[in-house]
Amino acid sequence: MDQTANQLQDQFQQRIDLEQKIEPRDWMPEKYRQTLIRQISQHAHSEIIGMLPEGNWITRAPSLKRKAILLAKVQDEAGHGLYLYSAAETLGISRDEMYEQLHSGKAKYSSIFNYPTLSWADMGAIGWLVDGAAILNQVPLCRTSFGPYARAMVRVCKEESFHQRQGFECLLQLSRGSEVQRQMCQDAINRWWWPSLMMFGPKDDESPNSKLSMQWKIKRFSNDELRQKFVDMIAEQIKLLNMVLPDPDLTWNEQTKHYDYGAINWEEFKQVIQGNGPCNKERLEARKKAWTNGDWVREAATVHAAKQAKRKSEAQTFSAKETQ
Amino acid sequence: MLQQSIKSYIQQDLQTQYLLHLADNALILSHRNSQWCGHGPILEQDIALTNIALDQLGQARNLYQYAALLITEKTGIATTEDQLAYLRDVGEFKNCLLAELPNGDWGQTVLRNFLMGSYQFFLYQELQQSAIGQLKAIAEKSIKEITYHVRWSADWVLRLGDGTAESKGRMVQALELLWAYTGEMLEPCDYELPFIATQSSFIKAAWEAKIASVFSEASLVHPTNEWMQSGGKKGIHTEHLGYLLAEMQFLQRAYPGLEW
Ligand SMILES: [Fe+2]
Ligand SMILES: [Fe+2]
C-alpha cells in the first residue's frame, strides 16, 4: 500500500519536473489539492472583492470615456473571478462552498482591497500599481503545474496588462493637468505604493507555504524576487509621470543593478490581514449583503427552471401518448 | 453650467432636444444599471447587467457626440459629449421618469429594463428608417444590443413571475410601482413628433403586445390605472434625479473645465 502511494507520489513529482500539466482527473497529493483550492479560491475572492473599491467610482467617473473604461474594467474583474471559481471547482469544491468560506471569514482575499478609494486618481493608481503588481504575481502562474489554473491565468493576464496601461494613462492625464490634478495624482500614489508592495506577501524567510509550492511549481519565483521586479519596473515608470514614490530610501544600486527600497511596515500588513484594515468590514459586508439579498432571486430561478423542466417532460409524455 | 448661447440654441432646436432626450434615457438607465456592478445576486448576472449598462452608455455617447457636433456646427462653439452629460442641471435633462427611479430590488431592476428596453426596441426599429443618416446609423447599431437587453430582461421577468411565491409577490409590487411611469414613454411630446409622429401609435401598440405576451407567460397582470406620471421629457423630474446628477457630475462641478 505504502509502496503504491510512494510510486504515485514519485510519478507525480516527475511529471511536474518534466513541466507536464496536472489535470483534474489525475492523481495528486491531497496537500497539493488543498493548497491549490486555497490559492485559487483566494485569488477568485480577490477579483470579486476587488470590484468594490473601484466600483465606488463608476457613478462618479469624470467623463463618459473614463466611465466606460472603468465599467469595462470592473466587469473584467468579475470575469476573472468567474474563470478562477471554475478552475477551483475542478478540484472538487463548489462555488457556494467557496463563497461561504469567504463570508465566514475563513477564506482570505488580497489585503490591498481593504484600503479606501478616496479620489478619482485612485482609479489610475490601482490600475497602474495594483494591477501591475498582480501581473507580476500572475504571469508565472500561466505556467503553473495545474492545467485549469494555468489556462485561466493566460486569459486573466492579457486583460490585466491592459488594465495596467489604462491605469497609467489615467495618471498620465492627471500628471499633465492642473495643479490640483497633479496633487490628486501624487496623493494616490502615496497611499497605494506601500500596500501594493505588500501584495507580494511576507518576506521569503517568513513565508511558510513557499517551499512546497515551489517544488510543485505552483509558484516559480519567491515573494522577494517578484517584489524587487515590481520596484524596478515602477521606479522607472514613475519618471514619466514626474511624480515620486513615497520612499526616501529608494535608490538605484549600481552593484546589484536593482533599486534598493525602504523597510515595509509589516505590522500594518499583519493588522490588515487580521481584519483591522480601514475597509475590511465594509468589503465583506457588501459581499454578504449582495449574497443574502440575492437569496430569493437564486431560489426563484431554480424553482422556475424545475417547473420548466417538468412542463417540458409532461409535454413530451403527452405527445408520446398521442402518437401511440 | 452650459454656456448660455448653447442653452438657447438647444431651447429652440427640436432635433437637438430629441437627440438629448434619447441620450439622456440611455445614460440615466445605464447609470442605474451600473450601480449593480459588484453587487448582483449571481456573478454571471452581475456581468450581464454590467454589459447592458456598457451598451447603454455607448448608445448615450453616440447620441451626445452627434448632438455636440450639431451644436458646434450651428453655434460655432466647440461642444463635447461631456459638457452635455455633466454640465446640465435637472431641469435640462429630458429622460423619461422611468429611467431615473431607484433600482429597488433585482426584480424591480429587471422589470424596468424590460419595460423600457421593449419600448426602445420598437422605437429604434423605426429610427432605422430615419431620414437623418447619423440617427439611422446609431439606431442600426443600437438595435442589436437592445434586442439582447429585451431578451435578457424578459427571461428574468419570466423567471421571477413564475418562480416562488416570494418572487411573484415582489414582481407584483414592482409592477405596481413602475406601471404609472410607462405612459410617458409612449406619448410623444413636441420635440419627438417631427421624428416619430406617424410611427408612435404603432410603437405603442407593438409595445403593449410585447408586454402582454411576456406578462401572460409570467402570469403577471399589470395594474389598470389610467393616470400616468410624466414630466421627465420636459425637465420636470422626480426628486431622485437631483441626487443622481449630484453624484455623477461631482468632479466636473468641483473642478470646472479640466480634462480627465
Ligand atoms: Fe483581475
Ligand atoms: Fe485587473
What does this molecule look like?
The complex is a heterodimer of chains A (324) and B (260). Chain A is an all-alpha fold and 324 residues long. In chain A, 69% of the residues lie in helices and 2% in strands. In chain A, strands 1-2 form a two-stranded antiparallel ribbon. The mean pLDDT of chain A is 95. Chain B is an all-alpha fold. The mean pLDDT of chain B is 97. Chain B has helices at 4-12, 14-34, 43-75, 81-86, 97-100, 106-127, 133-161, 165-178, 183-186, 193-196, 200-217, 240-248, 250-254. The longest helix of chain B has 33 residues, at 43-75. In chain B, 68% of the residues lie in helices and 0% in strands. Chain B is globular, with a radius of gyration of 18 Å. Chains A and B meet through helix 3, helix 4, helix 12 and helix 13 of A and helix 2, helix 3, helix 4, helix 7 and helix 8 of B. The structure holds fe (ii) ion (FE2) (2 copies). The site of one fe (ii) ion has 4 residues of chain A, from helix 7.
Judged by helices, strands and strand pairing, the structural class of chain A is mainly alpha
Domain count of chain B, please report it: 1
Cα shape of chain A: globular
How far from one another are the termini of chain B? 18 Å
Largest sheet of chain B: none
State the end-to-end CA separation of chain A: 58 Å
Second rung of CATH, namely the architecture of chain B:
Up-down Bundle
CATH superfamily of chain B: Ferritin, core subunit, four-helix bundle
User: What is the total tally of β strands of chain A?
Assistant: 2
The outline of chain B comes out as: globular
Strand and helix order of chain B: HHHHHHHHHHHHH
Radius of gyration of chain B: 18 Å
Helical residues, percent of chain A: 55-70%
Strand order of the largest sheet of chain A: 1-2
Radius of gyration of chain A, CA atoms, in whole angstroms: 23 Å
Stretches of chain A where pLDDT is under 50 for at least 5 consecutive residues are none
Number of strands of chain B: 0
